[in-house]
Design goal:
The chain contains eleven helices and no strands.
């Protein structure tokens, strides 16, 4: 049977950003060549952006205001580079996951109820991916446009860059200023696209995997035409079980394949999840300082507010998607109990189905989950802990600044 594939706006946005950084499927030699060029371009832009920030940190060591500003950008950039390098390391497995989901998840060969589950997952993905992409683009363009607006009416020597350049050279005169400004803008945009692309596709994969667990639950409960047939004389169920064994076996195979997909997601993204969990508290703390305590102009404050909202949305996305997998995989237990297995006769196949139901129940009691490289599972509770830790860091930083001001 030929599969029919739907149009998915969230997947289109995620694939577009991944194509820009060079990590997507290729169907021809030209596409593969283009992907390789974009990978080299992305690495070059990220390296340029990192050098600018490290150079700025070196020369602003004694100025806490400037140092904290550059640090807030540097932490996000380091996480950006880390995610990109990890995906390059697991590129084959990452692309094989996308291929598998295209073949087995992202198609239209479902019944009406299953289609409603897929549509619900698509709507959630569109909402979250759209909101994150919006805040990300607003942050990037506010960084790029703000210096242009600030330079209106200024002399060549008074102009500013997107990121300060601590170089004793005539870089503020034309055409050197325009060249450096363009390089900074391109590197910033590439870093911004790379920052959200892996989180978007990770969220889409997790939500669709959770939807497949929900579809599996529906298929187990609603095994076709399993009705009670009662012998009026002996009051004994005579529903034949042989024709239902193959149906239930296909459900078990689907359950095993979903567990394997979850294991592959864990293998590819576990290191990234650990890095994000480790860095989000520090990143939110630094950005919160820039928004609340730092003496910034309105344009810079708006930029950091968008940056903060982007990170909070990103944190919510990956914890919520991981939590969905845990919930839906654990719900398979209730599906097993809801299966009308008592209507089956106690023949060979009826006993086999009952035995398999016990095995499915025992496996489902241990819910599938994604972990921070095996240290702990990720759920919505992780989100609250990270926010709480970030607030603790922010309180300590605020108190330290007040102590320095008093002295």
């Amino acid at each position: 049977m030929r599969l029919k594939y739907p149009r998915d706006l969230s997947l289109s946005m995620a694939s577009f950003s991944l194509k820009i950084i060079g990590v997507w499927l290729s169907n021809s030699y030209f596409e593969q060549w283009f992907r390789n060029v974009m990978v080299v371009y992305t690495i070059s832009m990220l390296a340029i952006c990192l050098c600018i920030h490290l150079w700025g940190l070196y020369f602003s060591w004694d100025d806490f205001k400037v140092f904290s500003y550059i640090s807030s950008n540097s932490v996000g950039l380091i996480m950006d580079i880390f995610k990109f390098l990890v995906i390059l390391l697991y590129k084959k497995k990452f692309l094989s996951l996308i291929t598998y989901m295209q073949t087995n998840f992202w198609h239209l060969n479902y019944d009406e109820y299953e289609k409603s589950i897929i549509e619900n997952a698509k709507h959630i993905c569109i909402y979250f991916v759209g909101v994150q992409s919006f805040f990300s683009q607003i942050t990037i363009f506010s960084y790029i446009i703000r210096p242009l607006l600030s330079n209106i009416g200024k002399n060549e020597t008074d102009r500013i860059f997107i990121f300060n350049m601590y170089i004793d050279m005539p870089i503020y005169i034309s055409p050197y200023y325009e060249i450096i400004y363009l390089i900074q803008a391109l590197s910033l945009y590439q870093a911004g696209i790379c920052y959200i692309s892996f989180d978007n596709i990770f969220f889409i994969m997790c939500k669709h995997l959770a939807s497949q667990f929900r579809i599996l639950r529906y298929r187990i409960v609603e095994m076709p035409n399993l009705k009670v047939r009662v012998n009026l004389d002996e009051n004994v169920n005579t529903c034949p079980s042989s024709k239902y064994y193959n149906t239930f076996r296909s459900c078990i195979q689907q359950h095993q394949s979903l567990i394997d997909v979850c294991a592959k997601l864990e293998e590819v993204f576990a290191v990234i999840i650990l890095g994000q969990v480790s860095i989000f508290s520090i990143l939110i703390c630094f950005i919160g300082y820039q928004v609340i305590l730092a003496n910034l102009s309105l344009s810079w404050r708006i930029s950091f507010i968008c940056f903060l909202l982007n990170n909070i949305c990103q944190l919510w996305m990956f914890t919520y998607s991981c939590n969905s997998i845990m919930q839906e995989s654990a719900n398979i237990v209730s599906a097993v109990y809801a299966t009308p297995w008592i209507n089956l006769s106690m023949d060979k196949y009826g006993k086999m189905i009952r035995k398999d139901l016990q095995l499915v129940t025992m496996r489902s009691l241990r819910a599938c989950c994604l972990t921070a490289y095996g240290f702990f599972p990720i759920s919505l509770e992780t989100c609250t802990k990270i926010i709480s830790t970030a607030m603790s860091y922010f309180t300590l930083l605020k108190q330290r600044i007040m102590d320095i001001a008093d002295t």
